[in-house]
Amino acid sequence: MKPMKGAGPRPAVAMTATIMATALVLGGCSGSGGKKAEEEAASGAAPGAGPRLKVAMVTHSGPGDTFWDIVQKGARAAATKDNVELLYSADPDGGKQAQLVQTAIDQKVDGIIVTLAKPDAMRDVLAKATAAKIPVVSINSGAAESARLGALVHFGQDETVAGEAAGEQLKKIGATKAVCVVHEQGNVGLEDRCAGAKKTFGGPMENLFVQGTNMPQVKSSITAKLQTDSGIDGILTLGAPFAATAVDSVKETGSDAKVGTFDMNKELIASLRDGSIQFAVDQQPYLQGYLAVDELWLLKNNGNVVGGGRPVLTGPAIVTKDDAGTIAPFADRGTR
After folding, report:
1. Considering the domain boundaries, does residue 197 fall inside one?
2. Is residue 271 part of a domain?
């Protein structure tokens, strides 16, 4: 797995590390001294200490999507560790997502985690969260809008930089004419990925909009595109399930197009290994869920805000056939 650098200068980005609290056992001290040290270590500074928090996570996609299943696993792992009650909900419609956030505000939660795929739809309700003094953290989508909409920190990848990495990788595998398959129109993160890829690819690249909730229609659209333009030799999809569908279209049409994708799941590992998919851009969704919950716990218990006002990057990294074996055990358990 190869971490990618951005093409050209960009603001410095603060990175984060997993924070662990360890109780110290003092050898050679009296029994009462050791006990006191343990009590001090547990007094509000150790995960799980202090009052139980209630945190709402509201995303633009949810159960049944392998990517978001991984995000949830990370969030629930941190919630268990931190003694947090996690309330999860999702809706792809921006207005309905905002309504779910309003419900969380009405429930007087201790913190809110949101995605900002459609930031304009979230502006007013996040202002209400701020007015109610409920801290907000954003993940995955909307890094550029996060601070402006009142979020304390954003966890995710820089989608433009990730797109640039994907474009470079497409060029590296020999593609000269490509399509970027967009499965959700109006999603700013997906659009940024394609724009970044076009910037570094070097050849013609066209956006192909498909109906992401209807996989047979996705396959039909990709198949039709390959049939009408035999010059396409590269396909970039923006999610692992769409990559598998693109592979089916390539086989059906007899095309020589090579497929690369964003994001990963268990099934994608096998496709990387057999070469039907050339590469994946991994943004480590488990980290996004885990770190977002941890940040709200740290804020409540120790007044910490990570990132120094900048997004905290969880990717991108390029995963190829060479890395698939290393990633496979984690993908098998549903955390990569």
Report:
1. yes
2. yes
